[in-house]
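Hey everyone, long-time lurker, first post.

I ran two proteins through the pipeline my lab uses and got sequence/structure pairs for each. Pasting them in order. The first:
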Amino acid sequence: MTGSADSSDTVELRLDSPPSKTATLLIKGDRTGSPPKAVPCTYELEPIQKGALESPIVKITFNDKQTMTIACDPLSDNCHADSYPTVGGTSFSMLWHITRADVQSAHTKTRLRQ
């Protein structure tokens, strides 16, 4: 997922594959020229309610116990957080966008290594 920081730097939320519940919030420093900064966190996917459209809801917990819940639109890649957390002196926007991995590219890279 991508979003932005209060400094306008791009922020990427990278979720590790289940069963791991760890994630990294990466502040890229692309607008300010600051070195990239990684913020460790954990995540939990909320179960999809029966009969509802599949719309992911992710609860992020930072090391200082702040939380942010991101709900995504089931018909697009747009998401909305429930708060503006401030972690390590940086605040994050409420708007997020799902960035999907290029599965074909990842598969090709794996085959090339064999």
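...and the second, right after it:
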Amino acid sequence: MSYLGVPVMVGQHMVVVQDKDLDLAACKLSKSEFTLSAPNRNPAPENMADLPDPQVVTREINRGYKRLDSSCKTFDYPDHLLGRFAQVLLIPSSFARLPDFSAAAGPTRQGQSFASANVQYDTHGNILYPQQRTLHKSLVKAVVDEETSGGFTSWADLIKFGYL
């Protein structure tokens, strides 16, 4: 959809990390040849060709993501991993408004995960997936935060209207 000019973050893999681990995750991506960059929300060139000033359109699209962009870190994939342009977005858990998942990630004395006691996440190896109810609650809280701090934004509208 982003290629058709719809300002959505399709093409970006979004990974939520605990706030305390954001810099470590960014460092690990950098060491793996991911490049810190700006989000690419540019519509397809053929959609921009007939516009009198395409840069104004691009600035307008990006303006609605100011808070998101200042809170998160965007990396370009290395060329050898993907044949096409793709990005990964590191989102701090406080921005995503997901409940603390540190207990779900840690082992118990018996070697089992706390995730069995924490019904907010499904665990697959060392990856936690928020369950539907948890994800919906976090999205609603993120919209409220966005509109409280910035008024109208593209990020909040994408969540409200279900484009993400």
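Reply from user beta_strand_b:
Welcome! Quick read of the second one: The first helix runs from residue 22 to 31. Residues 16 and 127 are 10 Å apart (CA to CA).
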